[in-house]
Every structure is written in structure tokens, then in C-alpha cells.
Amino acid sequence: TSTTRTELDAQTLWRQDRDHFIHPFTDYSTFHEQGCDLITDSDGIYVQDAHGNRFIDGIAGLWCVNVGHGRAEIGQAMADQATRMAYFSTFNNLSNAPAAELAAKLSELAPAHLNHVFYSCGGSAANDATIRLVHYYFNRLGKPNKKRIISRNNAYHGTTYMAATLTGIASNNWEFDTLEHLVTHLSEANCYRRPEGMSEAEYCDHLVAEFEATVERIGADNIAAFIAEPIMGAGGVLVAPEGYHARMQAVCRANDILFIADEVVTGFGRLGHFFASEKVFDTQPDIINCAKGLSSGYAPLGATLISDELFEVLGTPQGKGGVLSTGFTYSGHPVSCAAALKNIEIIEREGICKNVREVGPYLEERLKTLSHHATVGDVRGSHFMMCLENVADKATKELLPVEARVGDRVAFEAQQRGLIIRPVGHLNIVSPPLIWTRDTIDRVVDILDEAFGAAT
Ligand code: PLP
């Protein structure tokens, strides 16, 4: 079996990896010694390493394997497409069946006015392509000064140059350059760390007022768009105060600023709906970006969903006889689109969004029972997008020193007990496949209870 073969080769692979693979987001103070953990197999809610250790996957790969691992029918759909027609261009007037079918399906699932799809290979590329299209849109409307994008501190939008600039997590850009002239960051909406004495409603007013003041300062004529994750993910699973997104959208509408929802994580069921913008947050974005759960990670794919109103401008011929000169060799890749179509079929057939709506509140409730641990200052999130924040002092919310590596220690202890969760600094993130049941959640919370006990 593949497990046995990998077991025999584990040492060689470990060395090849350490010597040649530049890992993304990896701590090089320890990597050279520790090397990698090779994950070789997966099935349902589990993954397995090269030594045969089995873990419950508490992070859906990387917030993406929404339908769970080992779905043979997705593999089969990809194999069928790859053997029939693995790749051909979608430039000019060429297309392929899965790309066309998926575009129609996404238009059906998205809010009613979003009926046009631009494909890319992942979330960063989707955000990057979006900003390029937004700039082009305003250029074509004769508003070339509308260039600045408003993002937020602690946002995560990816690591291509533009997406990294949109990202507001300072440590992500340490000693990297960014395109600062194109982006302004507002405060993030962090209810746990909001100013002392402010109610959530007042905090919302405060954040909206900051946006209005920023528009006033920079000038609406210089601002193209506002981009936000419905719930901030990598920046700490921050749920904004009630009504925040709708009010931010109202500021956009009043100032001819486009509203872009980055649903790379929140899309495809994580909050109980295919898209959270309209159903959960009462917003009608001009653009929704998605990736990850779109194909449940079985193949790389990103998509930018664009409104009829924008497409009316993007889809008209250029005065100079030019073409819409943007796109990738792999825009609308047939094998990725075939994976996405089968993935969506599974989500619909198995009622996966409904499972999240039913079981999600139980996950929230059970994780909150971990608050009795000394370091657990906040348990937050929604449905299958959750986070535990570790602190030194619950009253003052003071953080533990970075060297304490509290998130790492908790994640390590959980892994020793058969559960993978994600450490991000002092945070521990739980973003599982959307097929977890109440029984799985009970097992997970038992493991986490022991892990926090051992680590803190
Ligand atoms: N946007 C959000 C909200 C994300 O969480 C991520 C990745 O985690 C991205 C964009 C970037 O996606 P990718 O890593 O596929 O480029």
C-alpha cells in the first residue's frame, strides 16, 4: 500500500524535504533541526502521518477540506476529466465544459446580482485579480484616481504582492515590502479587545465613524473599494459587532466605493451557507472572492464573483480595440472545476450546510466549556470557524510573553493526543471539516481539555 511504501521512504523524504522544499509560513529557527511531519494518508475526518499515527483533522487541512478527506467521487471526477481533456486554453473564445458549468452553478448559489465569474488558482490570486479588475473598472469609467483600497488591521487576504499589502497582520509582512501607496488599513473589529467601557453597539459606531473619517480624509474620489472578510480568520477569528458589515457597506454605497467580501474561508458552508455575506451578514457585496472550500482543497481553485453592474463595464469592448488583458493559463482549469462541481454536489446532496447550522452551535457551546483553563481568555467564532485566545491574565487580558509559545504548546499536546489544531501566536484555531458530528466534538473537547491541562 502507499502507507508501507511511504514508511520505507520516510527518512529519505524527510531529508529531501528539509534540504529542498522552502515551506510557506515556517519558523526557520527550528525547521532545520526538526524538519517536517509528512502527512501521507487521509480519510473522512482523519489524516495519518508517515509513521502511521492517526489524527483528527481540526483544521480541515487549512480551512479548506470542507467535505472531508478521501472522497473517491471527487478523485474520480478529476481523473475522468484529466483523461478526457486535462487542459486547454480559456483565453479568447475558448472554453471547457466544467468551467462553463461551474460558472453557472456559482451564479446560481451566489446572491442574485452576482452572475459573472473570473477564475484563478487560489485565494491570494483571486484577491489580486480582483483589485486589478477594480482598478480597470474605474479607469474605464473615467475615474482613474479611484485607486486606494481600504482594508483592515489583522485582515488576511493572502501573500501575492497585492494580497499581502491588503493583509493587515503586521508580522506577516516583517521585512517584506508592500504596495503601501495603494492600501489604507482601518482598525479591525475586535469585540474582545474593544476599548474599556464601550458597549458593542458603541464600538460599532466607533468603527463606522473611523471609516467615514478615513473617506473624508483621503477623499471618496481616490478610493476604489473596501475589502473585508465576513469573519476575520487568520487574524484571530474576529466576529464584528452586530450590524457592522451592513453599516460599512452603507458607507461604501454613499461614497461610490465598491464592497468586496473575501469569503475564501467563510464560503462553502463554514458558517452554514454557501456564502455568508447575504444570509448571515445582510450585505450585498459588489464582489465575492472564494477559494478553499470551493473545491474542498482537492484541486487549486479560486473565483471572483462579479455583479451584473460591474460586468456591464468589464464586459464591453475597449475603445482602442484591445481585449480584457488579464487572466492565467489556468483560469478555469478543467480538472479543478470538475473537482469543484463534484464538491458542490456533495455539499448539496449531504446537506452539509444544514449540518453546520445544526451542529455548529454545539461546537461553540462545548468549546466554551474550556474557559475554566487558566489561560483561556476568550472562546469565539461562529459555527465551524472557532478560536481560543490564551492570555496571562483574564481580567487585564494581558498576553503571555511570545517566548512562552502558548499556542504551540497547546497544539503540540493536542497532537500528542491525536488531534491537529492550528497555533497562531497565542491563539489556537479550530476550523474543522464540515462533517464533524456531536460525537466527534465531544471527543475533540475531551482531548483539548487534557491538552490545555498539560500545556498551561
Ligand atoms: N483570503 C482569506 C480570507 C484567507 O484566509 C486566505 C488564506 O488563508 C487567502 C485569502 C489566501 O488564499 P490562498 O492561500 O489560497 O492564496
Please give a structural write-up.
There is one protein chain. The chain is α/β, with parallel strands linked by helices. The protein has 2 domains: 37-67 and 352-455, Aspartate Aminotransferase, domain 1, CATH 3.90.1150.10; 73-349, Type I PLP-dependent aspartate aminotransferase-like (Major domain) (Aspartate Aminotransferase, domain 2, 3-Layer(aba) Sandwich), CATH 3.40.640.10. It has helices at residues 2-20, 31-34, 60-63, 72-85, 97-109, 123-140, 161-166, 200-218, 244-254, 276-279, 308-314, 334-349, 352-368, 406-416, 438-455; strands at 39-43, 46-49, 54-57, 114-120, 148-152, 183-186, 223-228, 258-262, 287-290, 302-307, 376-382, 385-390, 419-420, 422-424, 427-430. A 7-stranded mixed beta sheet has the order 4-10-9-8-7-5-6, sandwiched between helices. It has a 4-stranded mixed beta sheet with strand order 1-2-3-13. A 4-stranded antiparallel beta sheet has the order 11-12-15-14, with helices on one face. Helix 4 (72-85) runs antiparallel to helix 12 (334-349). The longest helix has 19 residues, at 2-20. The model has no long low-confidence stretch (mean pLDDT 96). Pyridoxal-5'-phosphate (PLP) is lined by residues 122-124, 127, 156-158, 229, 233-234, 262, 264-265, 291. This is Adenosylmethionine-8-amino-7-oxononanoate aminotransferase. Its cofactor is pyridoxal 5'-phosphate. Keywords: Aminotransferase, Pyridoxal phosphate, Transferase. Belongs to the class-III pyridoxal-phosphate-dependent aminotransferase family. It comes from Halomonas caseinilytica.
